[in-house]
Amino acid sequence: MLRLTTIGACLCALAATPLLPGTAGAAPLPVVDCITPSGTADGVWQVYFGYVNTGGQTTVAFGDDNQIVPGLGFQGQPSVFNEGSYLRVLRAVFNANAFTGVSWVLAGSSAQATLASPRCRAGATGPASDVTTQSATLHGLVEPEGADTAYLFNYGTTIAYGSTTPERRTSATAQVAEPLTGLLPGTTYHYRLVASGSMTTVGEDRTFTTPPVPAPPATTTVVQTQTVTQPVSAPAASSPPPAGAAAAPVLTDLAVIRSRPRARVRRGATLTLRFTILNRGPATATNAGFVDRLGEGLRLRSARGPAGRCMGRTVVRCPLGTLAAGRAARVTLRVQLIRAGRLSDTAVVAADQPDSRVADNAATGTQRVSRAHPRGTR
C-alpha cells in the first residue's frame, strides 16, 4: 500500500507538468494517442503514446528524462525521435483499480493517460457460440467512436489463420457476430477480430474446438452361410474405396531450430538470434508463420524473415509463405539485453496443415546476462 500511495503522488506531480507548445528546434513533446481495454476484467487498460517533434532528429536516453510512470509494463519506448508527428510509438498499461493513470515523461514534459483519455477505435475478440461438428458463430466488440470502421475475423487451425470472414462496416459501437460453416469435426480453431478505422486494432487470439462425429450405435447382424464349391480362379483386384470416403490427411512436420545462447553476455549488449524453420514433409506447408514472444528484459531492435521485415515488438510475427517438403526458411532477430539475469524467449511455427509432430514446433531459449555494462554492442 505504501508503494501505491507513493507512486500515486508521483503521478499527480507529473500531471501538473505543462505540455509546452511546439516551437522550431524545441524538444519532442509526448502525446496520448488513445486508450483501450486489455480484454480482461481486472481493470487493466492499454495506452498508446506518441510524440511531436518540430526540430531535427534528436536522442533522449532512457532514464529521468525518458521514462514511463508508474511503469507497470510498456513496449516500444523510443530513444531516437525524428522530426514530425508520430502516434502509437509505444504502448503502456495501467490498472485503473490501483492507479489513476500512467504518464510518459519526455524531455521535461509529460503526457498522462487516464480513463478520460480518448478511446481507440478498436476491436475486441469475444467468445464463440453454437459450436457444432462443422459450424460455429464468432463474436466480438467493435468501438468505432462514430467513424466508419471495417472489421472481419481471421480464423484457421493454427496461429497463421489462413481464412477470413467477409468484411463488414459499422460507425456505431456494436456487438458483432459472424457464422462459420464447412469446419472439420474434432478440430481446434484459432480466431481473432480485426477492426480498421483511423487505426487497425487486432483482438486477442482465442480458440474453440468442434466436437468429433459421434460413433454409430452398435448393431447385431445375423448372417446365414452356405457352402458353395467353385473352380479356383485368380484373386480379385482390390476394390476402390467407396465414393465420399474421407482420405487420410496429408501431414507436414515443421520444426524450429535456434542458435545457441552465448556463454558471456552483458547487459546493454545487442544479441543476434537466428532461427531455421524446416519442413520435414511429406506435405507442403502453406501459410506458414513464425511467432517469437520476447520475455521481459529483451527489446527488439530489428526482425527479418523470408518476406522481409516482420511485425510486432514484444510478440514478433514473420510470415514464411509456402514451404515445400525438405525446404527451410530463416528468421533473424536482433534484441537488446536491457536487464541482467536469465532472459528468455519462445519461438513457435505453424501452418495450415496438421503437423505430425508438434513437439519440435516450439523452441525456448534462455540467455544469462551479467550486470556489467558492455564496452560496445555485439
Describe what this molecule looks like in 3D.
With 378 residues, the protein is mainly beta. The chain folds into 3 domains: 11-113; 122-209, Immunoglobulin-like, CATH 2.60.40; 254-370, Immunoglobulin-like, CATH 2.60.40. The protein is built from 1 helix and 28 strands. It has one helix spanning 2-15, and strands at 29-37, 44-53, 58-59, 66-69, 74-75, 80-81, 84-95, 102-106, 109-113, 122-129, 136-143, 149-156, 163-164, 168-170, 174-180, 188-196, 200-202, 206-209, 254-258, 265-266, 270-279, 285-294, 298-305, 308-309, 315-323, 328-337, 341-350, 362-370. The strands form 7 sheets. Strands 12, 13, 14, 16, 17 and 18 form a 6-stranded antiparallel β-sheet that branches. β8 and β9 (109-113) form a beta hairpin. It is globular, with a radius of gyration of 27 Å.
Proportion of residues in helical segments: under 10%
**Quick check: average pLDDT?**
80
CATH fold topology of the largest domain: Immunoglobulin-like
Structural class: mainly beta
The main β sheet shows up as: 6 strands, antiparallel
Count up the domains: 3
Distance between the termini: 42 Å
Could you provide a short overview of the structure?
This protein has 1 helix and 28 strands. It folds into 3 domains: 103 residues; 88 residues, Immunoglobulin-like; 117 residues, Immunoglobulins (Immunoglobulin-like, Sandwich). The relative contact order is 0.11.
